[in-house]
Write a structure and sequence with these properties.
The complex is a heterodimer of chains A (about 525) and B (about 325). In chain A, about 50% of the residues lie in helices and about 10% in strands. In chain A, helix 2 crosses helix 7 and helix 2 (about 45-70) packs across helix 15 (about 475-505). Chain A is elongated and about 130 Å long. Chain A has about 525 residues and is α+β, with helices and mostly antiparallel strands. In chain A, the strands form 2 sheets. In chain A, strands 4, 5, 6 and 7 form a 4-stranded antiparallel beta sheet that branches. Chain B has about 325 residues and is mostly helical. Helices cover about 75% and strands about 0% of the residues of chain B. Chain B has helices at about 1-30, 45-50, 60-70, 85-120, 125-140, 145-160, 175-210, 215-220, 225-255, 255-260, 270-275, 280-310. Classes of the chains: A alpha+beta (about 525), B mainly alpha (about 325). The interface between A and B is large, with 35 and 39 residues.
């Protein structure tokens, strides 16, 4: 079109751009973008994958850090705070995650809980929702009950030194731990920590008693303590409850401990006694299970075990699978056929069978965990090998490989420098995606008791799940936290793996922008 | 094609043979558990052990093992559990429960999965698609036993719709409505994963097909969108989706061990776990082969079904 006007430009109008200097190519101003840089740039854009990665990191940090900073260990088993509900100290009065739950109690149960609350001074019944009389004439209460305070008192058996030390502690801190012993009720109706919580008079003392309390004129409980007339009363010279002067005016006084064969049996406020023994007040962030173990700590320990196992398995499978697949794919032919048959056999064997046979043969020799590791390693690399093999088949016929071979490159160089880098993305993605699979299999096998990872200091998520299964209806928190953990873990790993796969897939380059 | 099929089947039997031999040797290397005499007549077990040459060399035992399988179809008798009962008959008695639960589950799950997948593909990159895709990722990732716990807690405890575990055997016939409702929790727990998996697969396939040139041609020649999708897009997408569905149908034989365990379904999976826990090696051996066979056979059937569904695909051909 407009080119017409430039048709005849006189020669003298032209001049050299550079007459004296040499002409160079312009220096590249941008940084080169390599394979991993490119993958990272595209991974970064995938918001869900980034979030998933952050989540995984948080879970890893949880698994690593918690066992070090937690008050508890897997060994810790509290005999009284069993199946207590999750409680965060900061949410003490928030109305949720405060260790309380709604329960339905009879009149006797209501009295029992209130009596504990009254004597310890800590609220047991947080709230009375409703009370009603059913068709048989029994009264029922809908209550919000604190599962920690509910424990109340227990009997502690102490030897002389422990008994004196506890009294010295009371004198020093002014915190009362030892409370008067209750007089033995004549009824068979003994519940609540061996009767330690029945410090009040019951309405009737026979074997068919309902367990309801009897009140004085003001409507409060009538104490029913063991008094100084008891023959087994032990010496006591520390804090006393209000209204008990220790017999200075000649009247009877309450007995705080009795002697028995092994030493002293004292009635202790378990909340304070726990503090005395452990140095902190009980609050289990995720509650405790049926053995009184802290679920928060157990979960972290189980997660740590799972992560360690999974990373180990993934690394070993990565190594074996890459080498095996590279040899298969590169050499092909008979080598390939024979090696494929071997991996076929290993792949076809159900994993549960492999795991079982390894357990039966090796668990007694090298330990449960190592034999599980062997089982994972025996069959786990097959998938990786077949992916690497595919990549080798795709690239080994390419011209650049042929060129390198013509230039005299040896097999090893061709494999490592020329073909393998092409499958790096596949390998990395495969290794990452193997991790949730291993964690799932491990939890499933330990859930089914095919492997037993539970020792005094070891636990696994599957074991925790199977321990909680019987209490699903009454104490769902035992299962909730491990199940939540493994669900979040699996979702995050899947999202992260998908993100990685897309990032490492060069055919998607530029597709999203 | 025929040659390829025969080759695949022969290879399958070779693999089966190797696995069977390996398992046999590995099991025989373990100490033989004593027969527990729980007030029953266990002479049959001792006679059986004698017949199978338990006091003879390993090679002889191996030969006798094969002989009894080939000539009599006999996999031995239960030693630690189901004492003196033939392994095969117990397996056959357990199989219907596994099949029923899984069959119900996929019969409900497959239509749902297809519908969600198709809907998401048609609404690609709209909010419906994003919602379904997000849910699919969540449902694929969450382990099946977590669904089992949720279903148990919500539907069995809180709402009280279903009984916690399966009806007792004599309580209800296998095909009754009562049996169906008592299987419902297990069916649901199994179904979530299938729905999600199928929905993801269908969405991916269908949305790829929908971008094809022949879809444009179909619309150009005057087909409505519904016609074009049902006659052209679905048919092509099904080439890939149908083998997956076939795979699910074969998978019902195997079932899910953990779901059977949680819901106390008296199926094959529970039998297998029990055989491991009580160390009954006859059951263990037979069930190992059962599971291996199913996984190998389903691989073959899925591969071959591509060729059957779409004759353009020639399995095993070089090009």
């Amino acid at each position: 079109m407009n080119n017409e006007q430039f048709k005849s430009i006189p020669a003298e109008k032209f001049e050299f751009a550079q007459k004296d200097k040499k002409i160079y190519d312009k220096r590249l101003e941008t940084k080169p973008i390599g394979y991993f840089m490119d993958a990272w740039l595209r991974f970064r854009k995938n918001k869900s994958a980034v979030v998933a990665f952050v989540l995984i990191m948080l879970l890893v940090v949880f698994a690593i850090v918690v066992p070090f900073v937690s008050h508890f260990t897997v060994n810790f088993r509290d005999p009284y705070y069993k199946m207590v509900l999750p409680k965060l100290p900061v949410l003490e009065n928030a109305g949720f995650w405060d260790g309380c739950s709604k329960t339905k109690e009879t009149k006797a149960g209501y009295d029992y809980l209130n009596a504990i609350g009254q004597e310890t001074g800590r609220t047991v019944v947080r709230k009375v929702y409703d009370s009603y009389v059913d068709s048989t004439g029994s009264t029922y209460y809908d209550l919000r009950v604190d599962s920690y305070s509910k424990v109340g008192y227990t009997f502690a058996t102490l030897d002389k030194d422990q008994y004196e030390a506890l009294q010295a502690y009371q004198d020093e801190t002014g915190i009362q731990v030892i409370y008067p012993m209750p007089a033995t009720h004549k009824t068979n109706f003994v519940m609540g920590n061996g009767g330690a919580n029945f410090w009040y008079k019951l309405a009737d003392e026979n074997s068919t008693t309902s367990g309801a309390a009897v009140y004085d004129d003001d409507g409060s409980y009538i104490p029913n303590y063991l008094t100084s007339e008891s023959e087994t009363a032990a010496d006591y010279h520390s804090l006393r409850i209000a209204g008990d002067d220790g017999g200075e005016d000649g009247s009877t006084w309450a007995v705080y401990a009795v002697k028995n064969q092994s030493g002293y049996k004292a009635r202790v406020d378990y909340y304070e006694y726990f503090y005395y023994n452990n140095g902190f007040y009980p609050s289990f962030y995720f509650g405790t299970n049926v053995y009184g173990q802290d679920i928060f700590t157990c979960l972290a320990a189980g997660a740590r075990l799972s992560f360690l196992l999974a990373v180990f398995v993934s690394l070993i499978n990565f190594t074996i699978g890459t080498i095996y697949g590279a040899i298969e794919g590169y050499y092909g032919g008979t080598v390939d056929i024979v090696m494929e048959r071997i991996s076929d056999v290993l792949y076809s064997m159900p994993f549960i069978v492999v795991a079982t046979l390894f357990q039966l043969h090796l668990a007694s020799k090298v330990g449960v965990l190592v034999s599980l590791l062997f089982a994972f390693v025996l069959t786990g690399w097959v998938g990786m090998a077949s992916r690497v093999r595919m990549q080798f088949y795709r690239f080994k016929g390419h011209e650049y490989v042929l060129a390198a071979r013509t230039l005299g490159a040896r097999d090893r160089r061709l494999i490592l420098k020329h073909i393998l880098p092409n499958s790096l993305g596949t390998i990395i993605t495969g290794s990452v995606l193997a991790i949730p699979g291993v964690i799932f299999s491990e939890s499933m096998l330990s859930y089914l008791h095919i492997i037993n990872l539970e020792t005094s200091s070891l636990t696994s998520i599957g074991t925790m799940l199977s321990n909680g299964q019987g209490y699903l209806s009454t104490y769902p928190h035992i299962i909730l936290f491990p199940a939540l953990f493994i669900s979040i873990l699996e979702i995050s790993f899947n999202l992260f793996g998908n993100g990685l796969r897309d990032a490492f897939n060069p055919s998607l380059r530029g597709a999203d922008s | 094609m025929t040659k390829y099929v025969i080759k695949r089947i022969l290879l399958m039997f070779l693999t089966l043979f190797i696995i069977m031999t390996l398992s046999f040797i590995l099991i025989k290397l373990l100490p033989l558990p004593a027969v527990r005499e729980m007030g029953r007549d266990v002479n049959l077990i001792y006679a059986k052990r004698e017949k199978m040459g338990y006091n003879k060399p390993l090679m002889v035992q191996y030969f006798l093992f094969w002989k009894s399988i080939i000539t009599e179809g006999d996999w031995g008798v239960g030693e630690q559990m189901y004492q003196s009962l033939s392994v095969g008959s117990v397996l056959l008695q357990k199989l219907p429960y596994t099949i029923m639960v899984n069959l119900y589950s996929i019969l409900i799950a497959i239509p749902l999965g297809l519908v969600f997948g198709i809907y998401a593909a048609l609404k690609k990159n709209k909010w419906q698609d994003h919602m379904i895709s997000t849910l699919v990722i969540v449902f694929i990732s969450v382990p099946s036993y977590v669904y089992a716990f949720i279903v148990q807690y919500v539907f069995c405890y809180k709402l009280g719709w279903f009984s916690l575990t399966l009806e007792s055997l004599d309580g209800a016939a296998l095909f009754s409505w009562k049996m169906f409702t008592s299987m419902m929790p297990a069916i649901m727990a199994l179904g979530f994963g299938v729905v999600a998996g199928l929905a993801r697969y269908t969405r991916a396939e269908l949305s790829e097909v929908l971008t094809g040139d022949y879809m444009l041609l179909a619309r150009t020649k005057g087909l409505t969108k519904a016609q074009a999708i049902s006659r052209h897009a679905m048919r092509n997408a099904m080439v890939v989706i149908l083998p997956m569905i076939i795979g699910e149908f074969i998978g019902i034989l195997g079932g899910s061990m953990i779901i059977e365990n949680i819901f106390a379904i008296p199926g094959v999976g529970n039998l297998f776990i029990a055989s491991i826990n009580v160390r009954d090696y006859n059951f263990f051996m037979a069930l190992t082969m059962f599971y291996t066979f199913i996984s190998l056979a389903s691989g073959i059937v899925i591969d071959l079904s591509y060729g059957l569904i779409d004759p353009r695909i020639r399995m095993g051909s070089k090009k």
